[in-house]
Design a protein that fits this description.
The protein is an alpha+beta fold and 105 residues long. It has one domain (2-103). Helices cover 20% and strands 37% of the residues. It has two helices and five strands, in the order βαβββαβ. The protein has a five-stranded mixed beta sheet. The longest helix is centred in the C-terminal third of the chain and has 12 residues, at 86-97. It is globular and about 50 Å long.
């Protein structure tokens, strides 16, 4: 299960309905977690432990380059995710910036 959150500039862009890139200063965070049974509602599923958090920040300046960070919270027994670089990194950043976000708490 994942949710994409954003800070103020990112949320303002997402709510505006405008197409195009996120403005400078936007920060997007994709949080991924497991699901677990809801103890209060039979058959319901609720968020469990966080597995990873990925962030993309759009830099201020004429080029508007975006930076990417990834933090894993998987159990030690699980194999770590391979770091992204080169074209795969740019594909991941582009995927983030193509989505509309929810407000970042």
């Amino acid at each position: 299960m994942t949710t994409l959150y954003a800070n103020g500039p990112g949320v303002a862009h997402a709510r505006s309905g405008r197409e195009g890139p996120y403005p400078a200063g936007s920060m997007l965070a994709r949080v991924m977690w497991t699901q677990r049974d809801d103890p209060h509602w039979f058959g319901g599923r609720i968020p469990g432990p966080v597995l990873s958090v990925e962030t993309v920040t759009v830099a201020a300046g004429p080029d508007g380059k975006a930076s990417y960070a990834h933090q894993e919270y998987r159990p030690a027994a699980a194999s770590p995710a391979a770091p992204l670089e080169g074209p795969a990194l740019q594909v991941r950043i582009d995927a983030f910036l193509a989505e509309k976000a929810s407000p970042l708490p």
